[in-house]
Amino acid sequence: MSHGKLTDTENFASAAEIFRQLSDITRLRIFCLLCHREECVSAISELMEMNSPAVSHHLKQLRLSGLIVGRREGKEVFYKASDSDKAQTLHTATEKIMELCCVEEEPLTAGSQDYPDKTALAHSVHAYLLERIGERITIEELSRKFLVNPTTLKESFKAVYGNSLAAHIKEHRMEQAAYLLRQTTRTVSDIASAVGFSSQSRFSQAFCKTYGVLPVEYRKNPTDIIAPTLDE
Predict the structure, then answer these.
(1) Are 155 and 118 in contact (CB under 8 A)?
(2) In degrees, to the nearest 5, what angle opens at C-alpha 117 toward C-alphas 123 and 95?
């Protein structure tokens, strides 16, 4: 670097201001998120587990620094990283620094994947839930796990599987419960717990709604009952 550039304090002051803006951990996380995709305030709030006013404050500072831009769509304003050399360079530098700071490489998880289309996202969420059929996992938890806003997650899943995420997984729970009733001697209460129900009575109601009979009746005559068709 030449002596002339070293004495150009105005440029150094501008650079220092940008680094000061990104010295806030939350602001840096928001900036990195918007470097990868466009999001609105409510979605960012859910992903960051923050209230909307706090997110709006960080967005305002990033916008004033020229690092992000916004566009209005109806009542919502969507934000993304600026296409400027400044923003793109900072993004690249941030990711490189984070790589250098990692003590060891962690295995790739679903939460760190990029999803090129809605089908890939839906299939990943579907597989994740089937592996945990006995757990009650909320949309918010899935949103944080897969780094996608709840609305996109629900719309992607429905577009691929034809019904809502909750309804589809409930059908899988009933299918698994029916299998356990046919193939095991486990109690109804135990089976209810195994497919994610904390209450045996609620499980029985859900099972009856799906198969038309209570679990104890199904166990006695499973071959007389037509199981609902479920697309995998």
Answers:
(1) yes
(2) 105
Give the model's pLDDT for residue 144.
84
Phi, psi of 67 (to 5 degrees): -90, -25
Whether residue 125 contacts residue 160, with contact meaning beta carbons closer than 8 Å, is answered with: no
Q: How far is CA 151 from CA 40, 139, 157, in A?
A: 11, 9, 10
Q: What digits encode the pLDDT tens for the residues 81-130?
A: 888 888 888 888 877 776 665 444 344 344 444 455 678 888 889 999 98
**Average pLDDT, rounded, for the chain:** 81
Q: Which domains does the chain have, with CATH numbers?
A: 8-101 (1.10.10.10), 111-162 (1.10.10), 166-224 (1.10.10.60)
Cα 218 from chain centroid (whole Å): 37
Distance in angstroms (rounded) separating the CA atoms of residues 65 and 37: 19
- What is the C-alpha separation between 138 and 128, in angstroms, rounded? 13
Provide the residue count of the chain.
232
DSSP 92-135: HHHHHHHHHH-SSPPPP-GGG---SSHHHHHHHHHHHHHTTTTS
Find, among 232, 12, 2, 4, the residue nearest to 123 by Cα.
Answer: 232
Q: Is there a contact between 18 and 86 (Cβ–Cβ < 8 Å)?
A: yes
| H/E run at residue 31 | helix 25-36
Asked if 48 and 55 count as a contact pair (C-beta separation under 8 A), the reply is yes
